[in-house]
């Protein structure tokens, strides 16, 4: 890495914009940063380190605390650093969190800070690479080390550059791992450790599996398992022979119990039928009483319509009598209203004199309206003239103030135009950053979706595998049952053949004429149809099993494809794959906000430019306007005097109370309103009297009609009541109370009919049931069902025990055969794994440094550290006048820790080696400087991707005596001959005299300034 230019704005003691352009060194590679204490020498290194890593050179101050106290609120803190890595040029910019002025309105807002990395072409044109929090990560990849390593190898700040020399073995390992890229050797260690652990785990798993199989088989070893298998096979043959006899006994017991239960049910039914018949016969008297009630209810039902009509007439008479009473009240109210309307009409006729007076007043006031309007117009004209004169005078006086304001607006618009142009210049880089963020966000969404699909696929695979295993067991069971059926069928065929044999006739199988032991059938024999049905069931389960197997295979393939997509996405996203989806959305929003801000700034710049042109033209216009305003003022004063004379003349022509046009208008409107109100009241009184007269006539006619209708309804009620009494007598009812008692609703009558009919049906059914039950139970003895059930239970248990024992033995034999086969396979696999484990254990112990404390990676780093020490000693021997030599410590003081990367200093004066922290301040500075330079040489030689083209040293030279200082300067001067840029910070006066290329830092009243002085 080689610095090209640093631009600091409001950073540290640099209040304004400060550029440090290293091109001004004019090819010199060795320069001094010089200036008074506190002027800002170290701030140059702070800015460089902050731009790259977001932290200062000493890692003690944050970017927020580095804001200049001299800077104004309109100038944000920012560092821009241009640097080269080989032939490639880069630019990194970074802003800390800070308060800035609001874009609109007054006050400040918090800017959360930003960072951006650009690739530069040969013309220093930017191409955006990354923004914000990923910038530091990319810088570490480009330079090859993190911030801490940068401050120990390239930029050696005050008090920190000794850390590389005094660092512990572990810290030195971290630094060298990053610089020499020894991940390969560490990955070899890790792979050996993983392989060693995997083989050890496989061996333990195999041993556990063997023990598990033997434990499951309840055997100490494989030989004992073989003995158990032979004994169980013999016992299985005996159990299968006892199954037929137990089955015959079970069938006989089942037949006896079935017949006993049937006899018991017949006897129980006969008793229940007799009980039911007695119960129904007890209800006969009650049902007969209900029959009589039903007859009377049907007679009363014939009078219901006439009774309803009579009730309706009575209710209608009551309603009409209420309406007659109400209508008489309404007729009286109408008469009273009519009398009141006549009195009101008489009163209004008496107001004729008032109406005539109001009409005369209206005519008089209308004659004054034109004069009052002319006076008001004169007043308004005079007021307008007076205001015009005042406005002309005010316009003339304000012209100079307006010109001053306009000039200030021109200056402000110019500043805003420059700021907008600066912001708009970043639009291209921000657009590229936005496109990148959108692509990363979409990739992250696809990754999240594939992860969810992979999880669902895993759950589906577990379900399918479980279903497949269950279907596999069903298939094996179906095959076993089919084999048993086939075996039983074959044995049955032998029994059938034996039944056909006769003495002295040869057997068609063996040819013998003697048949002492013929085969006999054991239980029921399976048929061809039984075996065919079982074969079909077996085939069906087999098809289902194969279908599930294909589904498992397809699900597993889909899962593998998803995992490949996930791995590809994680490789694409790298470390960002672990970031939550929301952070990608936030990054897109932030990038889009930056881009929109630049886009808006570009538009705003165009608008501001137009405003500048408009303001310039406005300045010319105001200048001319000032000349014209004075002339307009003189003319306005003359018009004002003439208009006031007209007002005086018109005032004399009107009474004082009517000089205001509003007063005249209001008085005329009041007179007109009074006249209208009087005429309106007269018309209203006339209309009310007419309406009241009509209401009286209508109310009287309605009352008469109601009285006549009510009398007619009463007459109808009398006739209907006589007809009801005659029909009630004809129906057999002697009194109204008897009729009301017998009356029932149609629903109640229907319910009585249904209940009586249901009883008749139940009684007939009970008699028929009793007859059938007596016939079925004739000559039936009472059975002993509990005894028969006990006999069946005993036979069933005996048969189940025989079958269970036979099945258990069959399954045990199959399982023991599987265990024996599995043990043979496990023994072979254990021998293979044990051989590989012994080889891998030896390799792992060597690579992990179990005995020596030096791992494989540390062994490689130790060899590299030897080269670094050799390169460092080439300078340290010269600067220390052949007294000190750096060397790697090979002894191991503490066997609990790793070793191999510790440094010590060999003292040629004493002949002993000692720890580096025992050196004096000046000696430590020389050793640290030599080590840093040596490390840079070796890293540059080994790692083509790391360019250590620069080194900065902050202080330390004041601890050296003149001769040692001369050796140190000579060593640094040798570096520039190889093209390396060397910068040192020091107060030592001799250095200022000896080094002709200097970056001079000076203090001013408003912060510091930096300037290169060469030659």
From TrEMBL:
One of its GO terms (biological process) is double-strand break repair. Residues 5-217 form the Rad50/SbcC-type AAA domain. Residues 509-529 are annotated as: Disordered. The keyword Coiled coil applies. InterPro entries: P-loop_NTPase (IPR027417), Rad50/SbcC_AAA (IPR038729). Residues 222-337, 447-481, 605-632, 661-695 form a coiled coil. GO terms for molecular function: ATP hydrolysis activity; exonuclease activity. It holds the Pfam family SbcC_Walker_B. The keyword Coiled coil applies. Keywords: Coiled coil, Exonuclease, Hydrolase, Nuclease. Belongs to the SMC family. SbcC subfamily. Heterodimer of SbcC and SbcD. This is Nuclease SbcCD subunit C. It comes from Anaerospora hongkongensis.
């Amino acid at each position: 890495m080689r610095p090209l230019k640093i631009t600091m704005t409001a950073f540290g003691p640099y209040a304004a914009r400060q550029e440090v352009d290293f091109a001004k060194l004019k090819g010199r590679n060795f320069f001094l940063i010089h200036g008074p204490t506190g002027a800002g020498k170290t701030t140059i290194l702070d800015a460089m380190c902050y731009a790259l890593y977001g932290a200062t050179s000493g890692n003690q101050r944050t970017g927020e605390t580095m804001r200049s106290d001299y800077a104004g609120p309109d100038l944000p803190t920012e560092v821009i650093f241009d640097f080269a890595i080989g032939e490639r040029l880069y630019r990194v910019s970074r802003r800390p969190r800070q308060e800035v002025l609001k874009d609109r309105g007054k006050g400040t807002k918090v800017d959360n800070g930003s960072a951006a990395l650009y690739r530069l072409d040969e013309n220093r044109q930017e191409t955006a690479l990354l923004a914000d929090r990923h910038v530091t990560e990319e810088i570490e990849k480009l330079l090859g080390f993190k911030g801490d390593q940068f401050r120990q190898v390239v930029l050696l700040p005050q008090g920190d550059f000794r850390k590389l020399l005094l660092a512990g073995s572990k810290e030195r390992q971290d630094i060298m791992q990053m610089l020499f890229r020894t991940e390969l050797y560490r990955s070899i260690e890790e792979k050996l450790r993983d392989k060693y652990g995997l083989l050890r785990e496989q061996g333990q798993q195999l041993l556990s599996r063997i023990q598990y199989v033997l434990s499951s088989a309840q055997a100490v070893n494989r030989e004992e398992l073989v003995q158990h298998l032979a004994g169980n096979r013999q016992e299985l043959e005996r159990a299968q022979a006892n199954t037929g006899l137990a089955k015959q006994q079970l069938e006989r017991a089942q037949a006896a119990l079935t017949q006993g239960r049937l006899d018991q049910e017949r006897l129980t039914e006969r008793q229940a039928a007799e009980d039911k018949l007695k119960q129904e016969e007890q209800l006969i008297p009650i049902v007969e009483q209900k029959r009589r009630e039903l007859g009377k209810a049907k007679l009363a039902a014939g009078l219901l319509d006439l009774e309803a009509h009579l009730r309706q007439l009575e209710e209608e008479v009551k309603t009409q009598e209420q309406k007659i009473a109400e209508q008489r009240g309404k007729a009286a109210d109408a008469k009273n209203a009519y009398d009141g309307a006549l009195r009101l009409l008489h009163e209004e006729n008496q107001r004729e004199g008032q109406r005539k007076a109001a009409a005369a007043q209206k005519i008089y006031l209308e004659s004054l309206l034109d004069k009052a309007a002319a006076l008001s117009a004169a007043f308004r004209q005079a007021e307008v003239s007076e205001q015009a004169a005042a406005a002309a005078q005010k316009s003339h006086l304000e012209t100079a103030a307006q010109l001053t304001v306009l000039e200030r607006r021109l200056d402000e618009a110019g500043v805003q135009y420059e700021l907008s142009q600066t912001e708009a210049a970043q639009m291209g880089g921000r657009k590229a950053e936005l496109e990148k963020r959108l692509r990363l966000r979409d990739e992250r969404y696809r990754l999240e979706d594939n992860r969810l699909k992979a999880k669902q696929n895993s759950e589906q695979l577990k379900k399918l595998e479980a279903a497949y295993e269950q279907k596999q067991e069903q298939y094996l069971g179906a095959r076993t049952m089919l084999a048993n059926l086939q075996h039983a069928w074959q044995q049955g065929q032998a029994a059938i053949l034996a039944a056909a044999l006769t003495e002295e006739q040869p057997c068609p199988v063996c040819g013998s004429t003697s048949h002492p032991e013929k085969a006999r059938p054991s239980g029921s024999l399976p048929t061809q149809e039984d075996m065919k049905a079982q074969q079909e069931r077996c085939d069906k389960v087999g098809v289902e099993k194969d279908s599930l197997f294909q589904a498992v295979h397809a699900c597993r393939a889909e899962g593998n494809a998803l995992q490949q997509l996930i791995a590809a996405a994680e490789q694409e996203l790298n470390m960002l794959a672990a970031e939550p989806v929301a952070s990608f959305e936030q990054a897109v929003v932030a990038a889009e906000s930056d881009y929109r801000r630049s886009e808006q700034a570009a538009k705003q710049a165009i608008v501001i430019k137009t405003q500048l042109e408009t303001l310039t033209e406005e300045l010319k216009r105001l200048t001319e306007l000032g000349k014209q305003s004075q002339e307009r003022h003189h003319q306005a004063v003359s018009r004002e005097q003439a208009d006031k004379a007209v007002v005086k003349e018109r005032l004399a022509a009107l009474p004082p109370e009517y000089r205001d046009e509003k007063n005249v208008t209001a008085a005329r409107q009041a007179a007109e309103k009074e006249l209208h109100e009087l005429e309106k009241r007269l018309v209203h009184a006339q209309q009310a009297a007419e309406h009241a007269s009509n209401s009286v006539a209508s109310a009287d006619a309605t009352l008469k009609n109601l009285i006549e209708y009510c009398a007619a309804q009463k007459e109808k009620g009398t006739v209907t009541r006589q007809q009801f009494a005659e029909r009630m007598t004809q129906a057999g009812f002697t009194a109204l109370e008897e009729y009301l008692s017998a009356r029932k609703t149609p629903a109640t009558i229907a319910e009585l009919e249904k209940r009586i009919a249901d009883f008749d049906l139940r009684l007939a059914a009970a008699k028929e049931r009793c007859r059938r039950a007596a016939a079925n139970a004739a000559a039936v003895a009472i059975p002993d069902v509990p005894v028969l059930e006990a006999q069946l239970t005993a036979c069933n248990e005996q048969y189940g025990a025989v079958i269970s024992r036979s099945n258990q033995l069959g399954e045990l034999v199959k399982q023991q055969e599987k265990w024996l086969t599995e043990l043979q396979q496990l023994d072979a696999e254990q021998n293979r794994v044990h051989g590989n484990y012994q080889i891998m254990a030896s390799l792992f112990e060597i690579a992990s440094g179990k005995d020596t404390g030096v791992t494989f990676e540390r062994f490689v780093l130790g060899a590299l550290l030897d080269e670094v020490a050799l390169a460092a000693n080439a300078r340290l021997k010269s600067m220390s006048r052949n007294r000190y030599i750096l060397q790697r410590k090979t002894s191991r003081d503490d066997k609990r820790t790793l070793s191999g990367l510790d440094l010590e200093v060999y003292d040629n004066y004493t002949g002993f080696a000692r720890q580096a922290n025992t050196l004096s301040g000046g000696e430590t500075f020389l050793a640290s400087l030599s080590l840093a330079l040596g490390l840079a040489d070796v890293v540059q030689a080994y790692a083509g991707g790391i360019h250590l083209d620069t080194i900065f040293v902050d202080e330390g030279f004041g601890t050296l005596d003149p001769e040692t200082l001369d050796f140190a300067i000579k060593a640094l001067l040798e570096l520039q001959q190889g093209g390396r840029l060397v910068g040192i910070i020091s107060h030592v006066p001799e250095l200022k005299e000896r080094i002709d290329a200097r970056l001079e830092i000076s203090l001013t009243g408003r912060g510091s300034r930096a300037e290169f002085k060469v030659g």
